[in-house]
């Protein structure tokens, strides 16, 4: 379970947001809406301890994330966090299978275990047989499915998705968001989905709105 209490982020004397409180249960997808500039992406970076915050507490299961030093936070991210981005961030010089295997390689998983998990994830996202394909040969929807498979390959406890359907047409976006929700539920991960799309938010279990003074039901 992800539990966030009193989270606040500021630049200089200006608070981007304050008093952010919410929690996400295992297998739950929570969508976060908000006006442009309110700090939705900054919130995700804070949840992953990629960006500092000036107030609050972030707890994933029994781990107090903000109490860790930077090296420990990096190791924590490597083991427990999966990212899905709007721009896919699939590495063009690697094959589909190699992209999906990246988190497992960083964890020094044995080759046989990596290969088996990559096959499992490609099948789960409907890309079985795409192992050797190069990213340049894929559509936007296929690239996002590769990104989802990579984000979930190491079975993270926390999945953070930043506008994952922003570059997709509405029909493809619907399929991708349904796939993400299905995989998160099967893995019992906590998922925070930042989006400006009401359609994408509509498939979440709960929808919250980030404002300067906190997080509120949408």
Q: What would you say this structure looks like, in words?
A:
It is built from seven helices and ten strands. It is α/β, with parallel strands linked by helices and 218 residues long. The protein has one domain (2-217): P-loop containing nucleotide triphosphate hydrolases (Rossmann fold), CATH 3.40.50. It has a six-stranded mixed β-sheet with strand order 6-7-8-3-9-10. Helix 3 (96-106) packs parallel to helix 5 (140-152), helix 4 (111-124) packs across helix 5 (140-152) and helix 5 (140-152) runs parallel beside helix 6. The longest helix is centred in the C-terminal third of the chain and has 18 residues, at 170-187. The two termini are 21 Å apart. The model has no long low-confidence stretch (mean pLDDT 95).
Q: What are the defining features of this structure?
A:
218 residues, alpha/beta, Rossmann fold, six-stranded mixed sheet, 7 helices, globular
Enumerate the strands of the largest sheet in spatial order, edge to edge or round the barrel. Answer: 6-7-8-3-9-10
What's the total helix number?
A: 7
Number of strands: 10
Straight-line N-to-C gap: 21 Å
CATH architecture type: 3-Layer(aba) Sandwich
What's the CATH superfamily, by name? P-loop containing nucleotide triphosphate hydrolases
How many strands, what sense, and barrel or not for the largest sheet?
A: 6 strands, mixed
Percent helix? 25-40%
Strand content: 25-35%
In angstroms, what is the radius of gyration? 17 Å
CATH class: Alpha Beta
Which runs of at least 5 residues are low in confidence (pLDDT < 50)? none
Class from secondary-structure proportions: alpha/beta
Mean pLDDT: 95
Shape: globular
Helix and strand run: EEEHEEHEHHHEHEHEE
């Amino acid at each position: 379970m992800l539990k966030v209490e009193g989270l606040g982020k500021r630049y200089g004397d200006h608070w981007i947001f304050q008093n952010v409180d919410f929690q996400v249960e295992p297998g739950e997808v929570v969508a976060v809406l908000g006006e442009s500039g309110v700090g939705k992406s900054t919130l995700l970076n804070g949840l992953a301890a990629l960006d500092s915050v000036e107030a609050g507490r972030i707890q994933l299961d029994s781990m107090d994330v903000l109490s860790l030093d930077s090296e420990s936070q990096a190791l924590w991210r490597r083991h427990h966090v999966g990212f899905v981005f709007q721009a896919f961030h699939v590495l063009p010089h690697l094959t589909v299978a190699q992209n999906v295997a990246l988190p497992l390689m960083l964890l020094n998983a044995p080759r046989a275990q990596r290969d088996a998990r990559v096959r499992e994830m490609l099948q789960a996202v409907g890309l079985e047989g795409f192992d050797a394909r190069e990213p340049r040969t894929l559509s936007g929807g296929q690239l996002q499915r590769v990104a989802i498979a990579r984000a979930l390959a190491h079975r993270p406890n926390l999945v953070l998705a930043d506008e994952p359907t922003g570059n997709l047409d509405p029909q493809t976006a619907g399929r991708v968001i349904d796939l993400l929700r299905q995989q998160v539920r099967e893995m019992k991960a906590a998922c925070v989905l930042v989006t400006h799309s009401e359609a994408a938010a509509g498939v979440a279990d709960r929808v919250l709105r980030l404002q300067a003074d906190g997080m509120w039901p949408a």
